[in-house]
UniProtKB/TrEMBL annotation:
Gene Ontology CC annotation, any one: cytoplasm
Key words of the record: Ligase, Metal-binding, Repeat, Zinc, Zinc-finger
Pfam families: DUF5128 (PF17170), Filamin (PF00630), NHL (PF01436)
Alphabetical list of Gene3D superfamilies matching this protein: Immunoglobulins, TolB, C-terminal domain
Keyword Metal-binding: yes
Protein name stated in the entry: E3 ubiquitin- ligase TRIM71-like
Molecular function (Gene Ontology), one example: ligase activity
Entry's Gene Ontology BP terms: proteasome-mediated ubiquitin-dependent protein catabolic process; protein polyubiquitination
Entries under InterPro entries matching the protein: 6-blade_b-propeller_TolB-like (IPR011042), Filamin/ABP280_repeat-like (IPR017868), Filamin/ABP280_rpt (IPR001298), Ig-like_fold (IPR013783), Ig_E-set (IPR014756), NHL_repeat (IPR001258), TRIM-NHL_E3_ligases (IPR050952)
Top-level taxonomic group: Eukaryota
Length: 450
């Protein structure tokens, strides 16, 4: 009886005298106020101080609204923000806070996304969240358990078409989890699987887009290393895996399950012979394009290893190459070559440029020079082309990724907001089917996806 009396007295103070800190000024009648009871830490039967408290609000959910870009399409890795304006039953703006807001953000994977809310104490609130999950999200906003106008909202999360600013990477595969050592190249397929050259461990690792290990190519039946210092990788439309085997001066081909199929190339300077091959790519006809690094040229082979053609020679002039590294192809079939220089040696002859050749090996144009300014390079290691034809280059010793138009005009640099050194010797790069970018880092031995 004593406990009941204490509760009645407290309710009287709240509802009549308006002295409770959780009741808002201007509450005219009790039936216009939403009220909930929250229990204290101890039993309600012990004493009045542990009864808990009553939370009240005049915010009327059916009249309250939300708006902002965070309720439209958002970009993965970027902060989504929207505002909430609370109103009373008559539709008037409230001038105080502490509405009983409740939110849930559910991704297409059914995962819950964290969010933050700022109460401005004037009836308005700012909500922010960041998602790294592609696809539709459902955002539910309620006041005292009742949906506000328009809730739930459907928001689609996609990849930004502007590479220059990212809040955080969408995903990081750490060396502690992967065991990677000196990952020099990466490729992907139509299923967004990730193929990594784990050079320091003489193996190829294949992961799902979530970083789950799928396949390892490392040993033969005699438990011997199949590869000796593998350098680069490409994947055909049928998911055959093409690997440049640098020490063995050859290209090795595996099926989608990692079973060895065949190899071609041998040490030498003649047609079809290789000298520490590096970058590999596959053209629309299924031909294999190889950066024959120490021979300062590009060679093209059929998938079975039959020699097709070659172009380039040692030098610094147009169409000449110095230790070419990464190669890629654009939509027109042009061959893009990282005319880099030796990675591990200082050389005054490093070209530090990207050269572009047509399908017949004829020089088209070039861009880049030695330096640290925008559009310049210090060891451009790998090159990739996205669906819009933009050219992405890992500028390894400048610790950045640079983006160019398909004519070589500089566009921007991929960085993270507030981070001047978000990459540690970036090397491998590949563009996934949905536009995400995979980057391998030689120094940190990790993979980042943007």
């Amino acid at each position: 009886m004593e406990t009941k009396t204490a509760l009645i007295k407290r309710m009287h103070r709240i509802c009549v005298k308006g002295k409770d800190p959780f009741i808002q000024p201007g509450a005219e009648t009790q039936d216009e106020i939403t009220m909930t009871y929250e229990r204290g830490d101890s039993s309600i039967l012990n004493k009045e101080n542990s009864l808990g408290y009553l939370r009240t609000t005049q915010a009327f959910a059916p009249k309250s609204t939300a708006a902002g870009h965070g309720l439209a399409d958002v970009m993965c890795g970027h902060k989504g923000v929207f505002g909430i304006t609370t109103k009373d039953r008559e539709g008037n703006d409230l001038e105080y806070g502490r509405a009983m807001l409740d939110m849930k953000i559910i991704a297409s994977t059914m995962e819950t996304i964290d969010w933050d809310v700022e109460d401005h104490d004037d009836g308005t609130y700012t909500v922010s969240y960041t998602t790294n999950i592609l696809g539709p999200h459902i955002i539910s906003v309620r006041i005292a358990g009742i949906p506000i106008q328009g809730s739930p909202f459907t928001v689609n999360a996609s990849i930004s078409e502007n590479y220059n600013l990212r809040d955080e990477p969408l995903f990081i595969l750490s060396p502690e989890k992967s065991g990677l050592s000196d990952p020099t190249a990466v490729a992907t397929n139509s299923s967004n699987q990730i193929y990594v050259v784990d050079r320091g461990n003489n193996r190829i690792m294949v992961y799902s887009e979530k970083g789950e290990e799928i396949l390892t190519i490392a040993k033969n039946e005699e438990d011997e290393d199949i590869l000796q210092s593998p350098q680069s990788i490409a994947v055909t439309k049928s998911n055959k895996i093409i690997v440049s085997d640098t020490v063995n001066n050859q290209i090795q081909v595996f099926d989608k399950d990692g079973k060895f199929l065949h190899k071609f190339g041998q040490a030498g300077e003649g047609e079809g012979e290789l000298k520490e091959p590096d970058g590999v790519a596959v053209d629309a006809k299924g031909n294999i394009v190889v950066a024959d690094t120490m021979n300062h040229r590009i060679q093209i082979f059929r998938e079975n290893g039959e020699f097709v053609s070659t172009f380039g020679k040692q030098g610094t002039k147009e169409g000449e190459l110095l230790y070419p590294s990464g190669v890629s192809l654009d939509k027109s079939g042009n061959v893009l070559v990282c005319d880099c220089g030796l990675w591990n040696e200082a050389s005054k002859e490093n070209n530090n440029r990207i050269q572009v050749f047509n399908t017949d090996g004829k020089y088209q144009y070039e861009f880049g020079s030695t330096g640290q300014d925008t559009g310049q390079f210090m060891k451009p290691a790998r090159v990739a082309v996205d669906k819009k034809g933009r050219i992405l280059v890992t500028d390894m010793d400048n610790s950045r990724i640079q983006v160019f138009k398909n004519n070589g005009t500089f566009l921007n640099t991929i960085v993270r907001r507030g981070k001047s050194d978000c990459f540690d010797a970036p090397c491998g790069i590949a563009v996934m089917q949905d536009g995400r970018i995979i980057i391998t880092e030689r120094q940190s031995n990790q993979i980042q996806i943007f």
